[in-house]
Amino acid sequence: MDLPDDAQRYPGLTPAGEQMLRFLREHPQAPIYRNASGHRLLPEELPQVQAFADAVRDASVDPRADLGQAWLRDYVIAAMRKVPHYRRYGSPPERLDDLPTVRRGDLARDVAAFVPDDQALDRLINFRTTGLTGQPLLIASHPLVAARYLAFHERALRRFGIELRSGAGDVGVMLVGWQQRCFTYVSVTPQRGECGLAKINLHADDWRDAADRGPYIDALKPEVITGDPLSLAALLAIDFSHRPRAVMSTSMTLLPGLRLAIETRFGCPVLDVYSLNEAGPIAVFDPALDAHVLLQPHMAIEILDEQGGPVAMGDRGEITLSGGFNFCLPLLRYRTGDHAALELRDGEWVLAGLSGRAPVRFRTSSGDWINNIDVTHALKPFALPQYALLQRADGCLQFDVHGYHGAVLDTVAAALRDLFGAAAATRSPPMPSPATSWSSTAANCPKVALAAPERGRSRCPQGYVTPGPLSQPRGQRDLTIHALIDDLYAMTPQVHANNRARAAHADRSDPLGCRAFARRTRADRPQRGQRSGRGAFAGAARAASAAAGAGHVGTGKVAR
Questions:
Q1: Is a pLDDT exceeding 70 seen at residue 526?
Q2: Which candidate in 93, 340, 342, 409 could, as Cys together with 98 as Cys, close a disulfide (CB 3.0–4.6 Å)?
Q3: Is 301:321 a contact under the CB 8 Å cutoff?
Q4: Distance CA 376, CA 476 (A)
Q5: What letter would DSSP give residue 196?
Q6: Is the pLDDT of residue 413 over 60?
C-alpha cells in the first residue's frame, strides 16, 4: 500500500506552506526526520475549528458529575445509544454513578467497541500509546479532534498572559523528545496560517552532527517548545540563544526544581499540563493555587476510592472522567489510574495533589543516560504481563515479572544487556529456575537479575523506580480497530464485502516486527475502519514519539 503524499497529509497546502516544509526539512543543520505526518484538516473544516476555539476560550468549567447538567445528560444518552460497549448497560440512569466504570484495559481489549456506530470511516485516524502506565492502546480520533487540542493549549497559555502570535512564515511549536528511537516529522498548522511545526529528537543519533542541535533551534525560533521533563532536561544541556515565549511540559510529573531551572534558562512561563491520550489536555498547574486548574468545560470528574465509591469532597482518590471533545471515543466513568482531590479554590475547580508518573532515567555501562521509554521499546517483543525494573546505586539492574507465564528470561536479559551495554555476561543458575540472575564479566557493565514469581503471586518489591506496562502476547491481544491497517499514517480503510466482518491489525510500522492480525464478526454493528495518524501540539499538534504515541495535532501527552 502506497504511503500518502504531502497533498494528502496537508490538504489545501499553499505555496507558503510548501516553503515552510522545505525550510524545516532541508535546513543544512536539520536533524534526520525519520517519519512523516500531517494535520489532514480540510480547508472547509477550519471554520469549525475556530468556532470550537471561540466557545472554549471563555467557557465556564463545572466538572461535577451531576446529570442535572444538560450537557452531561445529553452526552450520556447519546453514548448509550450509539456506542456498543455502553449500549450493553441498558437505559440511561438517574445518576451517573449508577453506571459501571471502565479502565484502560477495557479500551485495550476492544477499542472499536467504544467507537460510535455513526462515526464515518473515511476520516477516522488512530495513534498508538506506549503502555508506560498500562496496556498499550490504539486511540480512535479524527483530524477535527486533533485540531481542537490547540483551543485548550491556548486557554492554558492565556492563564500565564501568553497569546500566540505565530503565523505564516513562523515556526509555531517545536516538540522535543529524548529517546534512542523517536517518532520525528515536520508539519504545518493550518488554523495559524500554516506556521511550522517540528517534532525532533535531541538524541545525538538523530543528527548528522550533534553540534547542529542548537543552531537548528536558533534557526527555527519556535514560539513554543513542548516536551516531557526528560527531554526538557536534555534541552537545558544544549547551547542555543533562542528564547521561546512559553515551554509546555507533558507526560510526566514536572518537579519544581526542574521547572525553576527551565524558567531561569529561558525567562518564560513553564506550563505543567496534565493530559491523557484518551482525553486530551485536562488541567494546567497554577502555582498561585498550588493545583492543576481544569481546562475542559465538557468534562465531568469523579474522585473514587479503590472500591469505586465516591470520596468526600476534597479527599484524594482516583480521577474518573466522563465527557470530553473526542467524538470518536466517548468516555463514561473512565478510571485514569491517576489520583488527586477535586476542590474549588478561589472560584475555580482544580485537581489538588495530582499524583502522576515521575520521570525516570537509567544509567548505561558507558555512563550515558537513557529514558524509561527506551526500556519499554527494548522489551516490547516479550510476553510480559507486568514488569518492574529497578536500578540500584551501583548500576545493578533488577527486573521482576508479575503474572509470569512462560517468557524466556535469558532472552529478556539479553535485550536488557544490549540496551545497557552489558556485553559479556554469564547466567547462574541455569534455567528453568524461577529466579535467574546474570552477572557481567565486563568492567562497569550493569548486573541484571531477573525474578519470575510463582504463579498467582507477585514477588515485585515495593519502591521500584518505574513499573512496566501491562501487556499480553501480541498474537493474543484483542485490539480491534475494524478494517484498518495501522502504519503510522492515514490509509484508505479496507472495505469488506460483508460489512459485519472485522479486521484488526497491529502497528505495521513497528520496527521490532510485533504484528497481530485477528478477525471478528459482530452482528450488531456496521463495518468500520480507521486510518492512523500521529500528533503533536499547537493546533495541529499531538505529536509524539513512537514511544509516546501521538500524532500531528495535540500534545504528545500520555497518561501519567
A1: no
A2: 93
A3: yes
A4: 19
A5: E
A6: yes
Whole-number Å distance between alpha carbons of 240 and 216: 9
Residue 534 pLDDT greater than 70, yes or no: no
H or E, element range at 337: strand 331-345
Give the Å distances, CA to CA, from 4 to 25, 490, 533.
17, 7, 11
Q: What is the DSSP string of 98-165?
A: GSPPB-HHHHHH-GGGGS-TT--STT-EEEE---TTSS--EEEE-HHHHHHHHHHHHHHHHTTT----
End-to-end C-alpha distance for the chain, whole angstroms: 35
Cell of 307: 472500591
What is the three-class DSSP state of 476?
Answer: helix
* CB contact at 8 A, 272 and 284: yes
Mean pLDDT of 355-375: 76
Per the CB < 8 A criterion, the answer to whether 191 and 42 are in contact is no
Do residues 184 and 203 touch, judged by C-beta distance below 8 A? no
> Which grid coordinates belong to 460?
515485585
- Share of residues in the chain with pLDDT > 70 (%): 71
Tell me how far CA of residue 137 lies from CA of 140, 406, 547, in angstroms.
10, 23, 12
| 3 state SS of 49 | helix
Taking Cα atoms as reference points, which of 20, 8, 332 lies closest to residue 143?
Answer: 8
pLDDT of residue 536: 25
Q: Which three cell numbers stand for residue 122?
A: 473515511
Of 524, 473, 497, 509, whose CA–CA distance to 112 is shortest?
524
Residue 31 grid cell: 536533524
Placement of cell 513562523 in the chain: 170
**170-179, 328-337, 431-440, 492-501, range with the lowest pLDDT:** 492-501
**Phi (first) and psi of residue 447, to 5 degrees:** -85, 145
Specify the residue for cell string 523506580: 465
Other Cβ atoms less than 10 A from the Cβ of 242: the count is 14
The pLDDT confidence band at residue 455, using thresholds 50, 70 and 90, is very low
Residue 206, helix vs strand vs coil = helix
What residues does 185 pair with on adjacent strands? 199
- Chain CA centroid to CA 242, Å: 27
Cα angle 118-123-127, degrees, rounded to a multiple of 5? 105
Q: Which of 41-45, 347-351, 528-532 has the lowest mean pLDDT?
A: 528-532
The continuous run of DSSP H or E covering 85 comes out as helix 84-87
Higher pLDDT residue, 467 or 212?
A: 212
**Cell output for 512:** 521490532
The Cα 25–Cα 451 span in angstroms is 46
Q: pLDDT tens digits, residue range 151-189?
A: 999 999 999 999 999 999 999 999 999 988 889 999 999
348-355 and 291-294 as β-strands: parallel, antiparallel, unpaired? antiparallel
pLDDT of residue 367 exceeding 50: yes
Phi (first) and psi of residue 286, to 5 degrees:
-115, 110
